[in-house]
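Appendix C reproduces, verbatim, an entry submitted by the partner laboratory led by Prof. M.T., so that reviewers can inspect both the input and the predicted structure.
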Amino acid sequence: MKTNLEIAWRFITSRKRAMAMTLCGVIFGVGFFIITQAQTSGFERFFIQTILGTNGAIRITDRFQDTMLSMEALSQSGSTFRIKTEGIEREKGITYPDTVIPIVKQYPEVIGVSEILDRRTDVSSRSNEETGRIFGIRLADHLTVSNLGDQITLGSIQDFEADSSTVILGGKLAFRLNVTVGDFINVDGKNETRRYRVAGIFESGVDIIDRERVYMQLSESRSLMEIPFGETILQVAIRSPEKAPDLAIQMSNELQHIVQSWQEREKVWLDVFMALRYSAALTVSTIILLAGIGMFNTLAMMVIEKTREIAILRSMGYTQQDITQIFVFQGIIIMIAGILLGWAFGALATFGVSKIPLRIRGIFRTDSFVVNWDWNHYLAAGAVAVIVVFIASLIPARRAAEVEPATIIRGSS
């Protein structure tokens, strides 16, 4: 086998330029595969972190109850028949949160629960009026299920906690109202309008949240909206967000409330990111495919050029298996070198891309390219290269093994 490997290396060096082009194709194919996967999965992961940091892994909302209506009727013939209707009766929000919260906290996966009173209302300043969304919270509880503390860009969250007559506004809402920290806004309640001081401004990066949300203390929001109890929702944080769908089903069955996981809420965006990942992988894999085609052509030409050498090797006692190994070894050498150098190129390029400035505001907030360092990307790129290069080298190798030494030597004598 060592001799076969040495012969394969000599064959490679005899066509340096063609083999170098094939090697570059594998390197760039593997590298660009890693880069695109790092970017697309990086943005997806950052989006998920943003969603978990704003709306939580699980949301518990309306209470439901299965209902069945049954009645009997008399037909014209005198016989009776029964009519049954089934449905679901829903009650807005959680009527008894103090009963539900302890049950939710008993789940081992749960690490935080926040009760929220969510109501749409009008918010105004001296110069403008906007439609906002009141989020009544207990700050200590809400910080366990969100990244609100890290999202404050102006003001003090401690000031908000100490004074019930203060609010925290989304950055875009504050801009539309033309207010900043220390200014006052008016919030419409059920039967009155109250004045609140802006204690802080936050920016989550999610456009609809930053444009509408107004945080105030839960007790104050109940008083403003005249809702003394119930009608709230629960935002839940769990240890392993990927387990949210199964946990949501368990909670829904036990609590008889509508329970949504973040995967269900954000299914559309998750499908978009998945499509982008697959599309990028297929597109970049064509570079490796082209490198494989180049290797196939190079080895096929080499079989034609080295027919005499192959015949001599066969006459010296080399078997068809040995000849196949020599040509397959050429592909393996290019494949291993291409994958290793491609991994290095992909890692360096990914690091460079992560430093490129890029301002995004909408579904998340970032000021640079977001990348995800995942060894699975490297394994996937390597697997694609192995499959393509191996197939590209195997076909010419089998053709070389079929060379008949007697015919070649007799014809050249």
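The two ends are 30 Å apart (CA to CA). Additional entries are available on request from the coordinating office.
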